[in-house]
Specification:
This protein is α/β, with parallel strands linked by helices. 40% of the residues lie in helices and 19% in strands. The chain is built from 9 helices and 8 strands. The model has no long low-confidence stretch (mean pLDDT 97). Bound molecules: pyridoxal-5'-phosphate (PLP).
Length: 227
């Protein structure tokens, strides 16, 4: 049961990172990123205790959901095209990858149609990488103000994909910067947001992200192996 061993190792590493910085492990939600992996591997992780799964492709998520137990929370973590929004709203408990106002508006429209409120995170391109999606930090506050007008969308926090680095320490400053901004946004009184989630950290750098304040980490390779 290599998946379960990996999962438990990641959980221990999260606990250790929490101990280092005086946080409670219960403050950090582990999302098992199962993209490209077959359902039997997801079931192994489920039996090992995983209840949050992350997928980056709409079609793949939609096809896996009916094959898995019902008490799973599904997270959409990949870049989302507006024409796929219809399939995600009502299925994903949280869309991490909202990278434009246009996408937020589409989520609003579809959520209204389905008569529900969709929780989202704004994706932030902290390191300003050209290859990455997301708002620049200085664009986030204005986006929050605009999304205020969307009654069927609730901004729950921020997400980032840190640069690909060989040493996780190189991303510490990125995580710290987003944490500080997140705390800053928390204190602002903007309707229609409730900043309680900071989604950052992947296989290579999640312990550093936890030390810097992540409340959700997204770990794929570290649980399911290389893709
Ligand atoms: C694939 C992916 C992950 C997980 O990456 P690993 O390095 O395999 O842990 C996390 N976040 C996003 C947005 C991803 O697309």
């Amino acid at each position: 049961m290599v998946v379960q061993e990996n999962l438990h190792k990641v959980q221990r590493q999260i606990e250790e990172a929490c101990a280092v910085c005086g946080r409670e492990p219960g403050e950090v939600t582990l999302i098992a990123v199962s993209k490209t992996k077959p359902v039997d591997m997801l079931l192994d992780a489920y039996e090992g205790g995983a209840r949050h799964f992350g997928e980056n492709k709409v079609q793949e998520m939609v096809s896996k959901i009916p094959q898995m137990p019902k008490d799973i929370s599904w997270h959409m973590i990949g870049h989302l095209q507006t024409n796929k929004v219809r399939q995600v709203v009502g299925r994903a408990c949280l869309i991490h990858s909202v990278d434009s106002l246009r996408l937020a508006r589409e989520i609003e429209k579809e959520s209204e149609r389905q008569n529900l409120v969709t929780s989202i995170l704004l994706e932030v391109n902290v390191a300003r990488e050209e290859s990455k999606y997301g708002f620049f930090l200085e664009e986030v506050e204005e986006a929050l103000h605009s999304i205020r007008e969307f009654p069927h969308v609730k901004v729950k926090g921020l997400m980032t994909i840190a640069p690909f680095v060989s040493n996780a320490e190189e991303n510490r400053a990125v995580f710290r910067k987003l944490y500080q901004f997140y705390v800053d946004m928390k204190t602002k009184n903007i309707d229609n947001k409730d900043m309680t989630i900071l989604s950052m950290g992947m296989t290579g750098d999640f312990t550093v992200a936890v030390e810097e304040g992540a409340t959700m980490v997204r770990v794929g390779t570290g649980i399911f192996g290389t893709r």
